[in-house]
Amino acid sequence: IQSCLREIRKLADDVEDEKKGIRIRKDDWQKLHVHIASYNNFPTAAGLASSSAAGLACFVFTLAKLMNVKEDCGKLSSIARQGSGSACRSMYGGFVKWTMGKDACGSDSIAVQLASESHWNDLVIIIAVV
């Protein structure tokens, strides 16, 4: 979580909303504390990378929106992967491939969307927890 937060902070930009009286400069994000509350009602260790992947993808996406990050899902998937490998795939909807990349540090190991979530309109998955 700390490495994801650190990477998002590096990419943060100014946030200004005159109506709400909010003005946060890019450099201020390094000094501000973030309180995170996360709840999950899906069974942990169910074999679906459920809690970690969804949680980390949501965490990275939400921080990026909050801190006005102007990166695409590819860069954000690289950041989410640092918290949970499968989280890089959860940055997209639809059919997604996790590419290994060639860089030794893993920075180019990202997810790529192959087909959008509307590609197979009649595909349904049912998971029964028993």
Keywords:
130 residues, alpha+beta, two-stranded antiparallel ribbon, globular
Description:
A two-stranded antiparallel ribbon has the order 1-2. It contains 3 helices and 4 strands, in the order αββααββ. By secondary structure, it is of the alpha+beta class.
How are the SSEs placed, and which strands pair?
Blueprint: H1 2-11, E1 15-17, E2 22-24, H2 50-66, H3 73-83, E3 95-98, E4 111-115
Antiparallel strand pairs: 1-2, 3-4
Helix pairs in contact: 1-3, 2-3
Report the average pLDDT across residues: 86
Q: Encode the helix/strand succession as letters.
A: HEEHHEE
Q: Care to count the β-strands?
A: 4
What strand line-up does the widest sheet have? 1-2
Structural class comes to alpha+beta
What percent of the residues sit in helical stretches (DSSP H or I)?
25-40%
CA-atom Rg in angstroms? 17 Å
β-strand percent reads 5-15%
Beginning-to-end CA distance, first to last residue: 31 Å
Note the total helix count: 3
Biggest β-sheet description: 2 strands, antiparallel
Query: Poorly predicted ranges (pLDDT <50, ≥5 residues)?
Result: none
| Overall 3D shape | globular
